[in-house]
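Q: Can someone sanity-check these two? First one:
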Amino acid sequence: MAIELPELPDLTPGEAPAPLAAATSGGPSLLQTVLATLVVTVVAGAMGALFAVPPPAPEPTAKTEPTPGGVVPAASGLFEMPPIVTNIGSPKDTWIRLEASIVFDAKTVQHPEALAEDIAGDELAYLHTVALSQVEGPIGLENIRQDLNERAAIRSGGKVSELVIRTLVVQ
């Protein structure tokens, strides 16, 4: 592939070169440039206006209490358990505070406060045996959450579907 260059005219010293007709011919005219600029400006303005308009607001729906794992089903109840404060198993001078709620089937549980007290006692006994290394990091938090959920489900006989951790403080 060879590139052909236009031939340059022979110049004598002191003579000014004439503009090359071949290099300037065939290019866009001033009118074409103005029209292209105008079209691009109109299209850009339309796109900007399209993205500047906010989407319509969603329709209001029945309000449910959200949980980290999803949305509470309509037939479920949410009960806040009393805070649990205890020292952990290792090191003994480290304390843990857990604030949680239970999600239960409202049709099968008549007295959620009594069920929450039973679960809180079981969770207190469990947290008293936990080592600090078991609580550290996101994996430790997820393991504690799974253990607490499992214990709540066992203690309630399957009536509690989830134990939602609101706060967990270790100091």
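And here is the second, same format, sequence then tokens:
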Amino acid sequence: MKKLLIALVLVMGAIVVNAQTTPVKVADLQKSITDNIAKDYVGFTIKDATKVVEKNVVTYNVVITKGTTQETLCYDSTGKFLKKMGAKAGVTKEAPKSTTKPTTKK
């Protein structure tokens, strides 16, 4: 069991060393990133952004929201759009279903 725990700690340490994330202020994002979001994601607002450095490659992950929808977009170091990483939508609860049968009057 100890060997498994040690191996897990070493693997997690290697992952942390390989990818470093740093929060970025929305105001500090490159103009090309904010322009792309304004053009292609009308009505969305930037919630937060992070700078990711992995194997000497810099990317920016930008979380945008509109209502209950949240998406994460990935940009390269020059501000070029790379990919959409995911979309999440808020869950709305349905009204509880009635367990009683409707009665009819005769």
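A (reply): Looked at the second one. The domain at 18-88 is CATH 3.10.450.360 (Nuclear Transport Factor 2; Chain: A,). The first helix runs from residue 2 to 18.
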